[in-house]
Design brief:
This protein is of the alpha/beta class and 378 residues long. It folds into two domains: 2-10 and 254-372, Aspartate Aminotransferase, domain 1 (Alpha-Beta Complex), CATH 3.90.1150; 15-252, 3-Layer(aba) Sandwich (Aspartate Aminotransferase, domain 2). Helices cover 38% and strands 14% of the residues. It is built from twelve helices and twelve strands. It has helices at 15-27, 36-54, 67-77, 97-108, 126-130, 155-165, 238-252, 255-273, 301-310, 329-333, 338-341, 355-372, and strands spanning 2-3, 60-64, 88-92, 112-116, 137-141, 170-174, 193-197, 208-212, 279-281, 291-296, 313-314, 344-348. It has a seven-stranded mixed β-sheet, sandwiched between helices. It has a three-stranded antiparallel β-sheet with strand order 9-10-12. A two-stranded parallel ribbon has the order 1-11. The protein starts with a strand and ends in a 6-residue tail after the last helix. Bound molecules: pyridoxal-5'-phosphate (PLP). Pyridoxal-5'-phosphate is lined by residues 66-68, 96, 98, 143, 147, 174, 176-177, 197, 208, 319, 321.
């Protein structure tokens, strides 16, 4: 099977198998307990935290259960509430649902939310965001890499522009698709909150991390035993955390070569598939090296997905979480006509994918298009 759905989730790093044996033998104690083996587990959790923070020069971090929990924590509890006053928020129109749906809820609670669409280049511009910032803008949330198109937003420039207009406005970037893939120096930026998820970088599902700047307002979203410095109660997912750090360590080895390899795979596939009738490359120029979003007019994405599945290739039509209730919000926000949005498919890569896999995928995709393109039943 050729797996080209790495933006949905990634295969756990092979090193995690040995790590699990060690965890099951000695690292399984509750890190909050007070005897030596537990203290050692706590030390390992903190070493993992340090490695994950250092990768982006993040000042502080708490572990969460996933990227979704990180976003919910920031958007509901990561800004200064001015008594019961209704406040203003800005986000992009193409955020992942774990951000978008939080803002819909804030709107239902009476807050004002502006949704910024991507410009022609498929990215959210600092100017478009800054023009909306006002005196009571509590939080701006713009994702670093879009999970469907791969567009990379300049979150540092966005944060600079926002703070120039209102220094009190807080800035959050969902970094789930960007973390360890796109260079980012959090300490050197004006971004206040940033989130990542282990299963997108060859770790395990069920572990996420929320990075934040010291002093940024943050209240616990889950309350209870007071773990994670009272900011996130619940016994730490020790193995998930250790696995996250191990996977990150592996991915960071020769990271530049890995990035170049994925870019080569992406360019090769894109060039081959652009030969097809009605082919459109939706991923903007300079998009993330692991995501290629294309549409072939007259071929519904879902049909192409299943044809390729028969040939042993796994791809996606959009984000995995919305594939069961397909929404075209992301594609609409980058100006794609609905008829073409229905034809979008996403190929996403990891460093282990090979050129042979990509050549095979290109060949099977072109063959499927030749045979079935245009057979749309309405
Ligand atoms: N943000 C983005 C951009 C994503 O792609 C995803 C997952 O697809 C998430 C957030 C949610 O992460 P998790 O699955 O860890 O909740």
């Amino acid at each position: 099977m050729i797996y080209l759905d790495n933006a949905a989730t990634t295969k756990p790093a092979a090193a995690l198998q040995a790590l699990f044996c060690q965890y099951a033998e000695q690292d399984w104690h509750n890190p909050s307990a007070m005897y030596l083996p537990a203290v050692q587990s706590e030390q390992k959790v903190n070493a993992a935290r340090k490695l994950l923070k250092d990768a982006i020069h993040a000042p502080e971090a708490i572990f969460t259960s996933c990227g979704t929990e990180g976003s919910n924590t920031v958007i509901f509890n990561g800004w200064s509430k001015k008594g019961g006053a209704k406040q203003h928020f800005i986000t992009s129109a193409y955020e992942h649902p774990c951000v978008y749906e939080c803002f819909r809820q804030l709107e239902q609670q009476g807050h004002r939310v502006d949704y910024v669409s991507a410009g022609k280049a498929g990215v959210i511009t600092p100017e478009a965001v800054a023009s909306l910032v006002c005196e009571d803008t509590a939080l701006v949330a713009v994702m670093h890499v879009n999970n469907e198109t791969g567009a990379v937003n300049d979150i540092c420039a966005i944060a600079d522009a926002v703070k120039a207009k209102n220094p009190e406005t807080l800035v959050y970037a969902d970094g789930v698709q960007a973390y360890l893939r796109i260079p980012f120096d959090m300490a050197g930026s004006k971004v206040d909150y940033y989130t990542a998820s282990a299963h997108k970088v060859h770790g395990l599902k069920g572990t996420g991390i929320l990075f934040y700047k010291k002093g940024s307002p943050l209240k616990a979203y889950l309350v209870g035993g007071g773990q994670e410095g009272t900011l996130r109660s619940g016994t730490e997912n020790t193995f998930g955390i250790l696995a996250f750090a191990e996977a990150a360590k592996m991915l960071l080895q020769n990271n530049t070569q890995k990035t170049a390899h994925m870019q080569m795979l992406k360019d090769t596939l894109c060039t081959a598939l652009m030969q097809a009738k009605g082919a459109v490359c939706i991923s903007p120029a300079n998009s993330a090296p692991h995501i290629l979003n294309m549409a072939f007019s007259g071929m519904r994405g879902e049909v192409l997905l299943h044809l390729l599945e028969k040939d042993g290739v796994c791809i996606a039509t959009g984000s995995a979480c919305s594939s069961k209730k397909r929404s075209f919000r992301v594609h609409e926000s980058v100006g794609l006509p609905p008829a073409l949005a229905e034809c979008a498919v996403r190929f996403s890569f990891c460093p282990d994918n090979t050129l042979e896999e990509i050549q095979y995928t290109a060949e099977k995709t072109l063959a499927a298009l030749k045979k079935f393109q245009g057979f749309i039943r309405r």
